[in-house]
Amino acid sequence: MDKLESFHQDVLRGLKDHPKWLQPKYFYDDNGAALFQRIMEMPAYYLTACELEIFRDKTVELAEVLHVQQEPFDLIELGAGDAMKSSFLLEHLLREQADFTYMPIDICGEVLLTLRDRLNRDLPNLEVVPLHGEYLDMLREATEQSDRRKIVLFLGSNIGNMELEDAHGFCRTVNRRLKRGDTMLTGFDLQKNPHTILEAYNDKEGITAAFNLNLLERINRELDADFNISAFQHYQTYDPIDGGCRSYLVSGTAQKVNIGGEVISFEANEPIAVEVSRKYTPLEIDQMAIETGFAPLAQIADSKNWFVDAIWQV
Ligand code: AVI
User: Fold this and answer.
1) Distance, CA 33 to ligand 1 centroid (Å)?
2) Which candidate in 14, 50, 183, 209 could, as Cys together with 302 as Cys, close a disulfide (CB 3.0–4.6 Å)?
């Protein structure tokens, strides 16, 4: 099945369900990627600055826990993007003359080419092997390419976009692909003042709303649909008990939407669940490590203690 056909089927499956849902992985067409870039630049969206601070100010600590001087290794980054944060680690490793290959994985080929060109220019001594595709497929390819020790980076609180059970399943699969002694470093957003969290996902400028609504625009554009976008509103919640920060698109009016020949009915005020951005406690993070076959080695936090990079070993 080609990409457009799976997008079509996933959209219909979610919108025929009760309650309706759509998968957040479809946010990131060119428009969505540009809007996400603007989200990361918003002061209220603290996650990027916190993790950047960890990689900038605690590089030595990260490198020590990852045992980068021990033996040659492959440093694999799931969803590398522009590798802004990991570049601090890469520069440090080159300075320390660590023996390693950097393997950025990304679903977007264009992003990988830009990253490779930038790294070749800025860090000419770095060996870069870009891998284009889905995280887990490419991780398998990386483990088949060489049997060097692996260090896997999964930054940005991307794990937060999975429901708890799916996050466990994902970590278990990564664990199965790795060997004893390999490590995984994952960025987790921590539970904190609920207002701070809600403001990060509910900015007054409407950038997050535009990011979410772009998903319906994308469906209109690519799947020949006729959503009345202006009738939809972005609605965000945060539950400080379970850590679930959830976004919905709510149809203000009753409407019938034609998606490539299939009609989907909306009642007035009917929501579509579009994304969870789960927030964790330090204890839950260690529990997740243990339950998915890892030993937790360290949690390295930013100065506000809002975000941690957790390092686990197989
Ligand atoms: C990509 N991901 C970690 C972001 C998050 O914080 O959940 C996506 C996002 N959605 C709205 N704002 C940012």
Assistant:
1) 11
2) 50
Distance 277 CA to ligand 1 centre (A): 6
Closest residue by CA, ligand 1 atom 12: 201
Q: pLDDT tens, 206-235?
A: 999 999 999 999 999 999 999 999 999 999
Question: What ligand 1 atom has the least distance to the C-alpha of 156?
Answer: 3
Nearest to 229 by CA among 210, 205, 245, 243: 210
Residue 146 DSSP label: -
Helical packing angle, 3-15 and 207-223, nearest 10°: 110
The pLDDT assigned to 208 comes to 98
CA dihedral 245, 83, 104, 4 (to 10 degrees): 50
Question: 């060489």: which residue's tokens?
Answer: 146
Mean pLDDT of the chain: 96
Q: How far is the CA of 145 from the centre of ligand 1 (A)?
A: 32
Ligand 1 pocket by Cβ (under 6 Å): 39, 47, 156-158, 160-161, 201, 208, 211, 275, 277
Mutational test site, ligand 1, from 36, 45, 188, 235, max ligand atoms within 8 Å of CB: 36
Q: Which two tokens stand for residue 159?
A: 């794990």
Helix extents (H) in 96-157: 109-122, 135-145
Give the span between the Cα atoms of 309 and 190, in whole angstroms: 10
- Going across the sheet that includes 73-78, the strands are 131-132, 100-106, 73-78, 149-154, 183-189, 307-313, 295-301
- Its ipTM equals 0.99
